[in-house]
Design brief:
The protein has seven helices and seven strands. By secondary structure, it is an alpha+beta fold. Helix 1 runs antiparallel to helix 2 and helix 1 crosses helix 3. The longest helix is centred in the first third of the chain and has 14 residues.
Length: about 170
């Protein structure tokens, strides 16, 4: 596996993260989605949008030799304290299949948003669904077809440890 450094997103990363996401959407996701769908997603993932996302979730970047090659975030599921969601997980196409996505998800699964949650949801693209299934996520309510947003809702449940049990 390629040597990967994972760190928290910084404001200066917004342009590079946006470019990474746009390129990955247009390259990897184009086999599963129309160009119209992809371009609508691209419009919502510009640098300013990435900065807005980073304000309400914990966003991480994966770097190889100083270059950002992947990203991923975790935040509260609709403001709930016992549920969280994974968001904005992308790895550059030329780095896919090298374990970087796994390292990103494992990092997110060590984040406080994950550790406090009983249930974690992933709004997954058709393209990424096989990856999340390998990572232990399953279809929410057994639904294995994309919803009206073109996403599959996957989830993972974990044993919740209360504060008094954690000591």
């Amino acid at each position: 596996m390629t040597a990967v450094e994972i760190r928290r997103f910084e404001e200066k990363d917004a342009e590079e993260v946006s470019a990474l996401i746009v390129y990955t959407l247009r390259t990897s996701n184009s086999k599963d989605y129309s160009s119209e769908y992809i371009e609508n997603e691209v419009k919502a993932l510009q640098p300013a949008d990435i900065l807005r996302r980073a304000a309400w979730m914990h966003l991480y970047v994966a770097c190889v030799e100083g270059r950002i090659v992947g990203c991923g975030g975790i935040g509260s599921y609709w403001g709930r304290a016992d549920e969280s969601s994974l968001f904005t997980i992308f790895v550059l196409p030329e780095y896919q299949g090298q374990g970087i996505g796994r390292v990103i998800v494992e990092t997110l699964e060590e984040d406080e948003y994950f550790l406090r949650a009983v249930r974690i949801e992933v709004p997954a693209s058709i393209t990424a669904t096989p990856f999340y299934l390998k990572m232990g996520y399953g279809y929410k309510h057994g639904v294995s077809e994309p919803d009206d947003e073109g996403l599959l809702r996957l989830e993972k449940f974990r044993q919740h440890v209360s504060d008094d049990q954690a000591d």
